[in-house]
Each structure stands twice: as structure tokens, then as C-alpha cells.
Amino acid sequence: MRVPFGDIRPNYERTLELGDGCIMAYSESGNEKGLPLFIIHGGPGAGVSDYSRKLFNPEIYRIIQFDQRGCGKSVPHCTLENNNSFTLVEDIKALYQHLNIEQAVLYGGSWGVTLALLFTQSYPGKVLGLILRGSFLARQQDMGWLYDGGAGRIFPDHWHKFTRFVGGKTGYALIEAYHDKLTGGDELHRMAAAKQWSIWEAQCATLLPNPYILQSANDPKSALPFALIATHFMKNNCFIEPNQILQNMADIEHLPGFIVHGRYDMVCPLDNAYDLYSVWQNSELDIVREAGHSDLEPGIADAVIKAGSRMAQRLGISPIQA
Predict the structure, then answer these.
(1) What secondary structure, in 3-state letters, does the chain show?
(2) Which of 49, 52, 85, 110 is catalytic?
(3) What is the pLDDT of residue 319?
(4) Do 228 and 246 belong together in one domain?
(5) Domain total of the chain
(6) Considering 67, 142, 293, 295, which one is annotated as catalytic?
(7) What is the pLDDT of residue 41?
(8) Which among 238, 272, 306 is the end of a domain?
(9) Is the pTM of this model over 0.85?
């Protein structure tokens, strides 16, 4: 089984002004002359993961990471203003232009899959291929699974605590109730709601409990932007039309794609990945046994590392050429 590459430190960390008061934090790692790779983080609201870049060979890839609006080191922190799928797509385009990159490979996990596909469908000429893990297609059925009782049937004890915090509400009523608490004036209530929201997803994220993920969900610095921005997007159907992504796959089906998905993913069930694979002629689907949603799981990490290697081969790149 493949293991992540060693400690990969950024070559530099910088910021990019986006023109509307928002400033994006970004970094570059790996081979500065290598194959450009944009890592698009999940959430919405999760922020950059240092671990994610360890899944890609730093001799092959020029690894670019960035914090989406309101996340991580980007400012203003936790902003919801102009924070929607369209502006995030344009932010990625702005970073391409800023770095003088014409084309790149995109890697996204969970919500990062949604955003990677939306960007590619908007600017197919800028994408060489996609590596997608734990696909989330932002359909009503996908949001319903996590917030309207689907996953709750697998984790009824955790679901009870999650819904009890908002008086037993489910579905869109649950999302709106959490969003109201997260945007309210009581700081203690905001932090309590953020932790409840984040812990629920953390408890569903891996086949076996992962202390690191649960600890992060309890950390106010990560829990608040994750919960606030996620509820903002979910209550607005992620600012896209119903089934928009699958309906537009014909525009990008020529691009190579590697889809990695855990058999027992309880955040984004496997039908997300399978439905995507079914309408994407040039894609390959790797269903990982004994794995859930997180790239911290050994089987998922192994599959993503393999996908990164195979993508480079598909594009005619080797470590020596890079």
C-alpha cells in the first residue's frame, strides 16, 4: 500500500487581492517547474490541509493550495459576503492568471469535487484532468442524506445529539436553524452550534473513529468557519441549479478523470461517484474497500497517490521530465 510522501513544506506562502475586499491566502510546494496541480479543499469552509499535498509526488507536481473565501488564512475571516459558487470559480481563475498558469490538474475532495467540476465546466480549456475524492454533487438527495436522516439511520446516537440542538428539526429546517444560531449575536451559542455541526460530520467521516478529525471538529478556529460557511452554502443549494453538474458533464467528458471513493462513505454515499462515473466516458472509478470519506484513511490515501501517478502518466509526464 502506498504511503503519503514525506513532509512537504511550501516553497512560499503569499496572498492575492481579489478586488472586492477579500484577500486569498495561497502557497506553492513541490517542483516549481513541474505539472501544475491545484488542490481544492472541502467544506465549504474547511480550509487548506497540509496533509493533502503529501498525496502528490513533489518531483512531478507544482502543488498550489489556497484558502477559499472566509477560510483559513484568507480574509475577511468567516465572510459570507460575495461568497458563493460563482465567485469561488472566479477566484480560482484569478489565481491561475496571477501565477501565469494556462492549464493544470485539479484535485478536489468532497465539496472540493463540486467546486473542481464547476470550475472545469466553466473553463474546460484550463484543465488537463481531474482527480476527485469523496465526490459531492450538491444535489438535493446528497444534502438530504447528511441532513435529513439518511446518515442518521447509520449513526442514530450522533444524529439525535445533532438534531436535538435545534429542537429536533431535520432537512432544510435543520440547516436554517443552525445557520441562524451561527449568525446570531450570542458568541457562546455560535461556538456551541459550530462544534455540533462539525462534530456530526467528523463522526461520519471515517470507517473507524479518527481522534485527529474529532479533535479538529472541537477546535473553534476550524469549527466556526466550517459550520458557518457550510450552512450558508447548503441553505442556498450551493448556489447552483438542481443536478447542474451531471447535466453539464458532456462539456468536459473528454478530459481524463480519476474518481476515488470509499465503499462506506457516510458523508457522501457512493452513488455520487457512481453517477458521475456513469456520465463521464473518460473517467475511471476506484471504489476503496474498508474506507469511508476521509483522505486520512490509508486506503483512500493509497488510491489518491496512485491516481496522481497515473494522471502524470496519462499526460506524458515522468519525474525525470518534470
Answers:
(1) CCCCCCCCCCCEEEEEECCCCCEEEEEEEECCCCEEEEEECCCCCCCCCCCHHHHCCCCCEEEEEECCCCCCCCECCCCCCCCCHHHHHHHHHHHHHHCCCCCEEEEEECHHHHHHHHHHHHCHHHEEEEEEECCCCCCHHHHHHHHCCCHHHCCHHHHHHHHHCCCCCCHHHHHHHHHHHHCCCCHHHHHHHHHHHHHHHHHHCCCCCCHHHHHHHCCHHHHHHHHHHHHHHHCCHHHCCCCHHHHCHHHCCCCCEEEEEECCCCCCCCHHHHHHHHCCCCEEEEEECCCCCCCCCHHHHHHHHHHHHHHHHHCCCCCCCC
(2) 110
(3) 58
(4) no
(5) 2
(6) 293
(7) 98
(8) 238
(9) yes
C-alpha cell of residue 9: 513544506
* Beta carbons of 83 and 70 less than 8 angstroms apart: yes
Task: State how far the Cα of 306 lies from the Cα of 300, in Å rounded to an integer.
Answer: 10
Q: Known catalytic residue: 265?
A: yes
pLDDT of residue 86: 98
Extract the C-alpha cell encoding 319.
519525474
Residues with pLDDT less than 70, the chain: 318-322
Select from 295, 298, 241, 308 the least CA-distant residue to 268: 295
Q: Which of 238, 272, 299 is the last residue of a domain?
A: 238
Altogether, the residues listed in the chain come to a count of: 322
2 located within any domain: no
**What CATH number should be reported for the domain holding residue 299?**
3.40.50.1820
Residues 6+ apart with CB under 8 A from 181: 166, 189, 190, 192, 193
Catalytic residue among 67, 91, 142, 265: 265
Tell me the residue range of the domain where 266 lies: 12-138+241-314
Are residues 37 and 104 located together in one domain of the fold?
yes
